[in-house]
Amino acid sequence: MLTAGFGRRLLVVAAAAVACLLLASPSYAGGAGGSVDCVQDPTDPACSIKVEVPGAPGSPGGGGNVPCRAPGGVVVPCYVPGVGWLADDGCYYQPAVEMPSSDVPGGQGRWYFGYCGYPPNEDVVKYRWFASPPGPRQLAEEAVRALRPPAPAIRLNPVPPVAQLVRLPSWVWLDPSSWGPRTATASVPGMSVTATATPTRVVFSAGDGTSFTCTGPGTPWKKGRNPAAKSPTCGHIYTRAGAFTLTATVTWAITWVGGGQTGTAPALTTTSSVGVRVTESQALVTR
């Protein structure tokens, strides 16, 4: 078992050596430390993460390959067998059996040890605490980055450019094409992670100094309803005439799963606006 003091000295030595290792290491070497030359053959499956985004209403599909890079920008393998997964510091990590310190950071996770540069330099060991394993974590970051939730498609009744009427309820909702989960998947040979963006609420700024929040997309207006009835889920009443900008902002919760792990990422938002004209009611109006 390593002592706490030795672990701290090892961390300091490793951190100081990382920059030199990344600059000095060539992009290719045979043997256990790595046998893939990503500079000469960037199409090698070991050198990139494959990203796939399925098409959905309001969201065209897409995807491609994202190269794995050392901090200096050189393309390197995403994973080296027997060594570990590339992390953002240019080191390849695998779970540590011996702990570098008796001090354990708070929260879920574990210690990993890594060799830095490519090919990995096994003479210097760097220890690092990861809340989730670096392999799934790296794929999750790419999957989340590829998410493209659509902008909200605002719908109203009366339908613009027909004016809304003062003191008469306006029904507001989002077209179904802009509401619903969106996914993206990042994968390397033997592992994949799928990220999902799920809409959780929409906040409307009415443009008249007020705002209102809806937990769903709202209820579409249907012909034959009472024009004086309020929307059961999402709507607004303008109290003065004028020209306003109605803005919708949707919040998307982000989750991911894969590689035997699950996690979350910071929420995303999408926004769009429409012009709204409001006039005084001069006579009985039938919608």
Q: How are the SSEs ordered, and which strands pair?
A:
Blueprint: H1 4-24, E1 48-53, E2 62-67, E3 79-80, E4 84-86, E5 91-95, E6 110-116, E7 121-130, H2 134-146, E8 154-157, E9 164-165, E10 170-174, E11 182-188, E12 191-205, E13 211-214, E14 235-236, E15 242-258, E16 261-279
Parallel strand pairs: 9-16
Antiparallel strand pairs: 1-2, 1-11, 3-4, 4-5, 5-6, 6-7, 8-10, 10-14, 11-12, 12-13, 12-15, 15-16
Q: State the end-to-end distance.
A: 79 Å
The secondary-structure class comes to mainly beta
Quantity of strands, as a count:
16
Order of helices and strands: HEEEEEEEHEEEEEEEEE
Figure out the total of helices.
2
Average of pLDDT = 85
Q: Summarize the main sheet.
A: 8 strands, mixed
Low-confidence parts: 1-32
User: How much of the sequence is in beta strands?
Assistant: 35-45%
What's the helical proportion of residues?
Answer: 10-25%
The global form is elongated
Radius of gyration: 27 Å
What does this molecule look like?
It is a single chain. By secondary structure, the chain is mainly β. It has two helices and 16 strands. Strands 1, 2, 9, 11, 12, 13, 15 and 16 form an eight-stranded mixed β-sheet that branches. A five-stranded antiparallel β-sheet has the order 3-4-5-6-7. A three-stranded antiparallel β-sheet has the order 8-10-14, with no helix packed on it. The protein is elongated. It starts with a helix and ends in an 8-residue tail after the last strand.
